[in-house]
Design brief:
binds phenylalanine; 2 domains; two-stranded antiparallel sheet; BirA Bifunctional Protein, domain 2; single chain; alpha+beta
Length: 323
Amino acid sequence: MESNHSLLIEKLKQALVECKTEQELIKIKADFLGKNGSITKEFEQIKFAEDKKATGQVLNSVKNEAEELIKACKSKFEKIIEDHYFDISQPGRDIKIGTRHPITLTINDITKIFNSYGFSEVSGKEIETEFYNFEALNIPKNHPARDMHDTFYVDVNNLLRTHTSSVQIHSMLKYKAPLKIMTPGKVYRCDSDPTHSPMFHQIEGLYIDENVNFCHLKGILIQFINDYFGSNVEIRFRPSYFPFTEPSAELDIKFRGKWLEVLGCGMVHNSVLENVKISTKRFTGFAFGLGVERLAMLKYDIKDLRLFYENDMNFLRQFEGIK
Ligand code: PHE
C-alpha cells in the first residue's frame, strides 16, 4: 500500500514537470484528485484495509501533498502571466533617433556635388588583388606602398585596398570609355595618429573622354571646393607624383593660415589606359582621390580624426538635424 501511494505522488510530479499550460493542469488535477481521480479512488479502498485509521491518515497526507504540488504549479503559471503583464495605459518609452554620422554626411555632400557635374556613383570592393590596387595602376614591385609596413595583406595576393584608385581599373575594364564616375569607400593603411587612421574614406573621381585636359581637371576641382565650402577658400595646386597619373598634383587649401592637403589628382597615365585597353590615341582623362575625413575636419572644425570612430554620443549628437 505504502509504495503504491508514493508511486502516485511520483506520477503526479512527473505529470507536473511535463505540464505546459493551465488547461493541462486542470486535467492533471482531475486525473488525481477529481471524482474518479486515482488518489480519490484509493480512499474507496480504505474499507478493505487492515488498519483503516492508519491507511486513512496516510491517504490524507498523500492528498495534501498532491494539493500542495498542484498549487505550486498553478502559482508558477500565474507568475509567468504577471511577468508578461504590462500596463497599456502607460506612456511609451522615449526612443532616441540616431543621427547621421559626420562621415556619411560628408560623403553625401560631396557625391551630390559631383553628381551635379555628371559623375555617376559606382562602388568597389575593400579586399583587392595586387593587380587592381597596384600593378594595373603602374605601381611597380619595389614601390614602398607595396611593403607590409604600409599595406594590410590578407594573404599573399589579397590586401585591404590602400586607395579607391583600384575602382578606376574595375570601372574602365567594365564600362570602357567614355566614362565619368566617382566612387566613395573605405581604404586601409598601416597608419595611426591624430591625423591618420588605419581605416579612412576616400572618394575617387575618374573622367575619360576625347579631349579631356588638365584645364578641365583644375576647373572641376576649383568649382567643387567652392561648392563644398560655400565660399571662396584659398586653394593651390602643388606639383606631385603618383605612378598612375602624369602630370600629377595635390590640391591644398588654406586653413587657419596653413596649407592642408586634401586630394591627389592628375591626368590618367598612358600605361594605365594601355593596361585596360583604352586607346590612348583617342582618349585622355583625369582622376582624383580626395580624403573624406580631411574635408569633414575642415568643414566642421574637428581637430582629431579619431573622434570619428570613438562612437562618443556627445560628439555625434552635434550633427543632429544636419541633412
Ligand atoms: N590614390 C591616391 C592616394 O590615395 C590619390 C589619387 C587618386 C591621386 C587619383 C591621383 C589620381 O593618395
